[in-house]
Amino acid sequence: MSATETRETGALLRGVRLLGARGADVLIRDGVIARVGTIRTAPGQVQDIDADGLVLLPGLVDLHAHLREPGREDAETVASGSAAAAMGGFTAVLAMANTTPVTDTAEAAEHVLALGQAAGLVDVQPVGAVTMGLAGEQLAELGLMARSRAQVRVFSDDGRCVGDARVMRRALEYVKPFDGVISQHAQDPALADGRACSHEGELSGRLGLPGWPGIAEEVVVVRDVMLARHTGSRVHVAHVSTAGTVEVLRWAKAQGIAVTAEVTPHHLALGTDLLAGYDPVFKVNPPLRPDADRQALRDALADGTIDAVATDHAPHARHDKEHAFVDAAFGMLGLETALSVVAEVMVRPGLLDWAGVARVMSQAPARIARLAGHGHDLEVGSPATLTLVDPDAVVTVDAALSQSRSRNNPWHGGTYHGAVVGTFLRGTCTSYRGQLRPKEIS
Ligand SMILES: [Zn+2]
């Protein structure tokens, strides 16, 4: 890369570290990466951004977020969730189907797509339900959703498990011709019913909370990887939470079975012991697990057995969350804090480098969801869909500053090393240093 004189307009990121490696100047123009190298420009021609030492990643992609619209706009809207996503460094978000009404038709999927386009901050890609009304019986309009303007490729009844093996087999067969994937919320209801809310063990017994044993996840994952092998279709395991599931995934991948998996920031970072105070902010499904599971999840993410980090961002209104622990809604916020949590628990201890973060938070999720235009290489001609990270920033999370409409934020008050500085979607800066859609960046 030689020094070049340019007379171009756009934004120029000076001294940025591509995937955390070499430093270079990156010129963004007309929505794409126009130049990479040492770039000299006369002042005023471009927005000159001193990015010395900052890390540049392809824009983050979240495979699993609950944006609550339509139906629960008091908890979140596609616009407020998009704002949270942009602040968190995300450029694409998969919006889960368990809204009211459920995203189980082409019209419903196109509605969510249109809401995302109107918000204009991230690409909001609807997830289609596997079954009508998430009832687990009759397949939803999988083909019509795939052929709709939304081009749905990821299908999930998340919040509920597709428990019937025959329904799961049919769904896998149905999505195979258009390269779809079934994302499974693995929870055998006979082993962990709707009230199960604490990892089953000594603590759940002492607290008197209904236990949610890891085996309830593992038996479903075993069944589903065998169904994926049988059908030759793709299955994705949502929010893996146990060491046993990791073992199954490792075996299945070694057999060449088309299985992928995600882990949440909270299952990587937070442990069962937090439930001791009965604070419902820590109530999540599947539940927080003991240290041994958490270590297995971190190792599996580092070695590629788990492909991706996904937030399971699950905003809830106060009147749904602020109850006695057993009665509170499941879920916690995650979009704005995911990168910092991953930096803290994976990068800081040396389990992942920044190229690894790009893999698990951008490239792998984009590939799993078949999202063209995301998770690309940082080279000339690629879309300027980018996340700028300060690896040395020390941030303390303040829930009051959240773009989300909800405040069920388990990260509030926590201090993390590494933070998102800015987000670009096809060349447009969607967030920069704590500001949405900034007029000026420098
Ligand atoms: Zn789920």
What descriptors fit this protein?
disordered N terminus, 21 strands, five-stranded parallel β-sheet, binds zinc ion, 442 residues, 28% helix, nine-stranded mixed β-sheet
Task: Give structural notes.
It contains twelve helices and 21 strands. Helix 1 (about 80-85) links the parallel strand 8 (about 60-65) and strand 9 (about 90-95). Mean pLDDT is about 95; it is low at about 1-10. With about 450 residues, the protein is an alpha/beta fold. The chain has helices at about 80-85, 105-120, 140-145, 165-175, 200-205, 215-230, 245-255, 265-270, 290-305, 320, 340-345, 355-370; strands at about 5, 10-20, 25-30, 30-35, 40, 45-50, 55-60, 60-65, 90-95, 125, 155, 180-185, 200, 210, 235, 260-265, 310, 385-395, 415-425, 430, 435. Bound molecules: zinc ion. Zinc ion binds next to loops.
